[in-house]
Amino acid sequence: MFVTIELAMLHADLDAFYASVEQRDDARLRGRPVIVGGGVVLAASYEAKAYGVRTAMGGARARRLCPQAVVVPPRMSAYTEASAAVFDVFRDTTPVVEGLSIDEAFLDVGGLWRIRGPAPGIAAQLRRDVREGVGLAISVGVARTKFLAKVASAVAKPDGLLVVPSDGELAFLHPLPVERLWGVGEVTAAALRRRGIQTVGDIAQLGPSTLTSILGKAAGRHLYALALNRDPRPVEVGRRRRSIGAQCALGRGPRSSEDLDAVVVSLVERIGRRLRRARRVSRTVVLRMRFGDYTRATRSHTLTEATARTEDLLDTVRGLLAAAMPLIRARGVTLIGVALTNLGGDGAVQPALPFDERPSGTLDASIDDVRDRFGSAAVTRAALLGRELGPAVPLLPDRPR
Amino acid sequence: MKFRLDRDVLADAVAWTARTLPNRPTVPVLAGLRIDASDGQVSFSSFDYEVSGRVSLDADVADGGTVLVSGRLLADIAKSLPNKPVDLHSDGSKVTITCGSARFTLLTLPVEEYPELPELPAASGTIEGTAFAEAVAQVAVAAGKDDMLPTLTGIRIEIEGEKVTLAATDRYRMAVRELTWQPGRPDLSAIALVPARTLVDAAKTLASSGQVTVALGGDSGDSLIGVAAGGRHTTSRLIDGEWVPNYRRIFPTETATVARVEISTLIESVKRVALVAERNTPVRLSFDEGQVVLEAGSGEDAQASEALQAEVDGPAIATGFNPTYLLDGLQALGTTFAHLSFTETPMKPVVIQGVDSAESEPDGGYRYLAMPIRLSG
């Protein structure tokens, strides 16, 4: 006999993750407003958020809002370590964990009912385990679906637990402001507010046709479905990445083509290594750009055959960059990103004819080896000396097959 | 300017000249087709800074002159005219085309803004048109199509006196064709990298004109190739950059196993079996005494297999190929049997050549090299 366990979905989200790690590791920072990142704000503690400091805000503006804040440089390796410890707790809780990013995950605890009891109890225990084992505050939402669990964890912040009973879902959802729905950012929220739509309940009452006329077809239908609480997605364990990418924000001001070349070389070195470590190959290379006027553009190129060789990837990115140079010269560039998509396993790859005397791929493999043993900075290209990018933002590990 | 031409002659000339016109020209005048008339001769030309084309014809020229008109429009008009003499007449900024009772008036484009066409370089030598077109098509199958790797989109032409060697590769296969021609001087030695698409098109459209003149001009400024026959010529800029260095080294020197298979049955079989091969998965070929077994697919998906008769000399060998790369080579051979030579290890490239029977030895005139895919498990 099956017991239907309706409340089975947990969304666990670490509070002000980077800033909390800093406060955990340095007693002097506790209880004080903390900003991580000197340039752009990478994270702000709740004390700083109270002054209006937000992630991704310019550093100067953040310091104006909160002059007494302590600004600390990011320690990416500490965050990676803390995240790994938290994910260990997740996996001790349930085998069905879908990591969304370094600091949040869905956990399906439906199968644990017989051994561990109902989901709210498991969620409370999870919060205690993370607090005691890793020393960090984590907010958890418990609900029947992923969507409600994620909304609930956001409402529960900071350091809270919120359970949405299955017979009270609409009652929970409808009074919330529209921003709580996935996909509603500042622009959409403003568009809705101009028409007097404040809450999720307002959206549900509006009906799909009015909504699509305001927001467009896809977004309108999406929001309407969410407002009616329709979201049947299951937890996907070990979901494989569909792309591997890295980006680098650049200060304003003109950039020489040598500077830009150094940036893409660093980015390609970094993602090439990640691609090979995940034992994957890529066929489509994407160059992303943000310009001085905040507009964005992407340029992509699909190769004849998939590859994991840094040299091939770099040739392609350089080609895309060269083609985009007129645009960059005209508008100025403030961000460059490179993403590898169209990924496949590295099992069945068409090898190239041996054009070089040395076997192909040996250089990449040797450099990867050296970096694995002695750190990323152990070997670098001469062109990159003195031009190293900032630390890589920690990410969930790319899973090999 | 005023002249008369037969409808078919005009339509042919205009269609050939207009075929390389850019669809989206960087400057409007490049969409133009230039018409020059003087002393019983009319010529039509096009140019996009990379490729130029020019046809010269005998015609009844009443008044000489030069005009530039929209190439696409002229080509469309010329091919739809009735089969009667066509009169072309320019007056100020207009060109009037009259044919029977049909009459068209076109606006001219500013010919003074049109770029100077490159001169056809001095002839390097001549070659029979159909043989040249066949050879170019045989190597072009291996040329790269990725514009990010421009040097691999070219056909390398190497001339040593009477011997011409054409070669192309996209890194996964390579095709090399050797042929003889009539060089302008016996000690001629030259190397050029020509855009494959342009060379295929030029060789194909000039194939029926008998002897084709090939002209390489690399000494002054822009390096160019010109291909000319029957009053038509095309020029193309060469590709800059180094092609695969010392490429002959890539062909294996030792051979362990040789297989000879009838081409048409092998092609049919590869196509059938490849239906179940997913992208990036090989068609597997196992050569053993008297036969080759083709297989594709895996236990988790659909599978296919087929056995064909084959003459196999040497130890049994199993290897796998991207079916497209294998088919491209087999289809380019143009003979009855394929001669495949393998080294001892299945991960070295295979050399495919054409032979006339299951007993004959290849003459080395055309060699297609393909890199196998590693067989899993």
Description:
Chain A: Monomer. Chain A: It catalyses: DNA(n) + a 2'-deoxyribonucleoside 5'-triphosphate = DNA(n+1) + diphosphate. Chain A: InterPro entries: DNA/RNA_pol_sf, DNA_pol_Y-fam_lit_finger_sf, DNA_pol_Y-fam_little_finger, DNA_polymerase-Y, DNApol_IV, PolY_HhH_motif, Rev_trsase/Diguanyl_cyclase, UmuC. Chain A: Its EC number is 2.7.7.7. Chain A: Keywords: Cytoplasm, DNA damage, DNA repair, DNA replication, DNA-binding, DNA-directed DNA polymerase, Magnesium, Metal-binding, Mutator protein, Nucleotidyltransferase, Transferase. Chain B: Residues 1-118 form the DNA polymerase III beta sliding clamp N-terminal domain. The complex is a heterodimer of chains A (401) and B (377). With 401 residues, chain A is α+β, with helices and mostly antiparallel strands. Chain A has 3 domains: 1-164, 2-Layer Sandwich (Alpha-Beta Plaits); 174-227, 5' to 3' exonuclease, C-terminal subdomain (DNA polymerase, domain 1), CATH 1.10.150; 244-384, Dna Ligase, domain 1, CATH 3.30.1490. Chain A contains 15 helices and 12 strands. Chain A has helices at residues 17-25, 46-49, 59-65, 76-93, 113-116, 119-134, 146-156, 169-173, 186-194, 200-206, 208-215, 217-227, 257-277, 310-331, 362-374; strands at residues 9-14, 34-36, 43-44, 70-72, 97-101, 104-108, 138-143, 161-163, 244-249, 280-291, 296-307, 333-345. In chain A, strands 5-6-1-7-8 form a 5-stranded mixed beta sheet. In chain A, helix 4 (76-93) packs antiparallel against helix 6, helix 10 packs across helix 12 (217-227) and helix 11 packs across helix 12. The N and C termini of chain B lie far apart (74 Å). Chain B has a 9-stranded antiparallel beta sheet. A 9-stranded antiparallel beta sheet of chain B has the order 15-11-12-13-27-26-25-19-23. Chain B has 3 domains: 2-113, DNA Polymerase III, subunit A, domain 2 (DNA Polymerase III, Chain A, domain 2, Roll); 123-248, DNA Polymerase III, subunit A, domain 2 (DNA Polymerase III, Chain A, domain 2), CATH 3.10.150.10; 251-370, DNA Polymerase III, subunit A, domain 2 (DNA Polymerase III, Chain A, domain 2, Roll). Chain B is elongated and about 75 Å long. The model of chain B has no long low-confidence stretch (mean pLDDT 93). Chain B is of the alpha+beta class and 377 residues long. The longest helix of chain B has 12 residues, at 7-18. At the A-B interface, strand 11 and helix 14 of A face loops of B.
